[in-house]
Amino acid sequence: MDYIAHIRENDRKVQTVTEHLLGVQVLAEGYGEKLGVSHIAGLAGMLHDMGKYTEEFRNYILQAVYHPEAPPKRGSVDHSTAGGKLLFEQYHSLPKDLSNKQDHMNKMILAEVVGNAIISHHSYLQDFINHDI
Q1: 131 in a domain, yes or no?
Q2: Alpha carbon distances (Å) from 98 to 37, 59, 80, 91
Q3: What is the pLDDT of residues 84-115, one digit of tens each?
Q4: Is 18 inside a domain boundary?
Q5: Residue 88, Cβ neighbours under 10 Å: how many?
Q6: Are 126 and 88 in contact (CB under 8 A)?
Q7: Is the dihedral of CA 114, 119, 122, 125 positive or negative?
Q8: What's the domain range around 11?
Q9: Residue in 23, 15, 11, 75 with CA at minimum distance from that of residue 48
Q10: Looking at the domain assignment, is residue 129 inside a domain?
Q11: CA distance 60 to 52
Q12: What is the pTM of this model?
């Protein structure tokens, strides 16, 4: 089964999630290159829509396109946080071997920054530090 990222309105051509993520990765790497962070930007581009790899999102987008008289509520399927959650789960724990603790801490911080950009790509950046908000 192909997971769907977008369906073009005028001719209903499907862009798969894989095509979309690889295309965004290339664009993001190009933008990030100017700042010396091409791989970091590319990682964010590659993971930003990981949540579209679900049957729930596939049904959501098909319903929206093929049944415009009864579309699903816009934003009712969370597709934008999965990539950020993946980074958090992969890098937000201390390793058993603490011989290279600083390197791991740097990766944790980077994962949090990139993850925040990913989970916030349809809204404002989240504030995970200020507890008053």
Answers
A1: no
A2: 27, 45, 33, 14
A3: 999 988 887 666 676 777 887 888 888 888 99
A4: yes
A5: 19
A6: no
A7: negative
A8: 4-119
A9: 23
A10: no
A11: 10
A12: 0.83
